[in-house]
Write a structure and sequence with these properties.
This protein is of the alpha+beta class and 107 residues long. The protein has one domain: UreE, C-terminal domain (Alpha-Beta Plaits), CATH 3.30.70.790. The protein has three helices and three strands, in the order αβαββα. It has a three-stranded antiparallel sheet, with helices on one face. The chain is elongated.
């Protein structure tokens, strides 16, 4: 009997086990890693979020979350991450300046 193919599997290429990956992000904070993963997903950059959990008794301070991308996407991924960080720092500085310049309103 002929095997019917799922249309979604026909559109997705098979993963290449020999593909070179590059680490573009590492953080101890899972929520930060999820935000970065979302940024890369939005840019259609395939990525893999991996827990780098090692035995903390043997390797203190090692672990956290790691994001890997294809080697050819690494430069773009790092640029997007850096741009987002710069934007976040700029937004924080603007909020601090506004808080200093605008005294609290009295009721």
């Amino acid at each position: 009997m002929a095997k019917s193919e799922d249309s979604s599997s026909a559109m997705q290429p098979e993963p290449n086990p020999n593909e070179k990956l590059a680490k573009v992000f590492e953080s101890e904070d899972e929520s930060e890693a999820l935000v970065v993963k979302g940024i890369l997903d939005s840019a259609s950059i395939d990525n893999d979020l991996t827990a780098g959990s090692l035995v903390q008794d043997m390797f203190p301070g090692l672990g956290g979350m790691i994001i890997l991308v294809r080697e050819e996407d690494a430069t773009l991924a790092r640029r997007l991450i850096d741009e987002q960080r710069a934007r976040a720092i700029s937004d924080d500085e603007t909020a601090e300046i506004q808080a200093i310049e605008e005294p609290p309103q009295k009721e």
